[in-house]
């Protein structure tokens, strides 16, 4: 595949609307445009491109990351909700013709784009919907072997955190049950236009192959979420709403707090509870 790098007009840090080649960052969309070419290239390199040949970039903006993705031997699709950004991409990235999707990633049926094919997901994710993006990737994990991109640093760290730490939580457990999570590097506010008020962090998720949860998935998700809703309490107290029998609640695992359990222990906890769970409540 011929490598192609389209021209890119980086917006002025002081005057993002100084010409017709720039897109105005919109606060309600959580847009912070990356302006550092080296970081964009590093993010593109986080994907292995092994076992798939299609990539979906979320929120490409003016394509600073897109241009480096197009250099890889893969079929790049972008999904963007901002009409102004779509118009910019259509006029500057002719090689993306037919693969620019003006849709809301969270609401759009990605099966219309990829059918049953495998594809990776990447992007500089808006802070205000980043956790929702992760949950959708979890739902579609059978088609997504790899996922990487930029989050608010605190969120990226939480996703990759191990048990026993205060930042470890729902996202950590559910993500690590299905993916190998790795925090890669930190990005300062100064490389964005406009700059956010916090640092950003880039992470990579790689799907665990031949992995079986070995318990009821809906119940597993419910137990993890219910446990961390009262994370300071022991599981014996935080899971009271499940109306479990007293003899089960005397099991030693119920004396622990949720942050003390790794994802494998949450699987074991779900297996213990499963015989007592009411199917209709799962």
Automatic annotation (TrEMBL):
Its EC number is 2.1.1.182. It comes from Christiangramia sediminis. Its main location: cytoplasm. Belongs to the class I-like SAM-binding methyltransferase superfamily. rRNA adenine N(6)-methyltransferase family. RsmA subfamily. Specifically dimethylates two adjacent adenosines (A1518 and A1519) in the loop of a conserved hairpin near the 3'-end of 16S rRNA in the 30S particle. May play a critical role in biogenesis of 30S subunits. The keyword Cytoplasm applies. It is an enzyme of class 2 (transferase). It is found in: Cytoplasm. This is Ribosomal RNA small subunit methyltransferase A. InterPro entries: KsgA/Erm, rRNA_Ade_diMease-like_C, rRNA_Ade_Mease_Trfase_CS, rRNA_Ade_methylase_Trfase_N, rRNA_adenine_dimethylase, SAM-dependent_MTases_sf. Residues 39-209 form the Ribosomal RNA adenine methylase transferase N-terminal domain. It catalyses: adenosine(1518)/adenosine(1519) in 16S rRNA + 4 S-adenosyl-L-methionine = N(6)-dimethyladenosine(1518)/N(6)-dimethyladenosine(1519) in 16S rRNA + 4 S-adenosyl-L-homocysteine + 4 H(+). Keywords: Cytoplasm, Methyltransferase, RNA-binding, rRNA processing, S-adenosyl-L-methionine, Transferase. Coiled coil: none annotated. The gene is rsmA.
């Amino acid at each position: 595949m011929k490598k192609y790098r389209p021209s890119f007009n980086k917006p002025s840090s002081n005057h993002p609307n100084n010409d017709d080649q720039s897109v105005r960052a919109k606060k309600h969309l959580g847009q912070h445009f990356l302006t550092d070419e080296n970081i964009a290239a590093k993010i593109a390199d986080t994907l292995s491109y092994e076992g798939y040949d299609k990539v979906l970039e979320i929120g490409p903006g003016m394509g600073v990351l897109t241009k480096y993705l197009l250099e890889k031997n893969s079929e790049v699709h972008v999904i963007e909700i901002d009409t102004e950004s779509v118009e910019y991409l259509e006029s500057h990235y002719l090689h993306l013709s037919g693969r620019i999707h003006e849709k809301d990633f969270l609401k759009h049926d990605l099966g219309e784009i990829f059918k049953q094919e495998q594809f990776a997901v990447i992007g500089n994710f808006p802070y205000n919907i980043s956790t929702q993006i992760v949950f959708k990737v979890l739902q579609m994990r059978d088609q997504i072997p790899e996922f990487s991109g930029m989050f608010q640093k605190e969120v990226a760290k939480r996703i990759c955190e191990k048990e026993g730490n205060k930042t470890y939580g729902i996202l950590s457990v559910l993500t690590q049950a299905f993916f190998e999570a790795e925090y890669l590097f930190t990005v300062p506010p100064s490389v964005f236009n406009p700059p956010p008020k916090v640092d950003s962090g880039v992470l990579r998720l790689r799907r665990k192959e031949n992995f079986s949860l070995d318990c009821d998935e809906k119940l597993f998700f419910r137990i993890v979420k219910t446990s961390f809703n009262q994370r300071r309490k022991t599981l014996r107290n935080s899971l009271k709403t499940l109306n479990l029998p007293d003899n089960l609640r005397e099991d030693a695992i119920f004396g622990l707090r949720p942050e003390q359990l790794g994802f494998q222990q949450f699987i074991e906890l779900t297996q213990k509870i499963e015989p007592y769970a009411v199917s209709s409540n799962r």
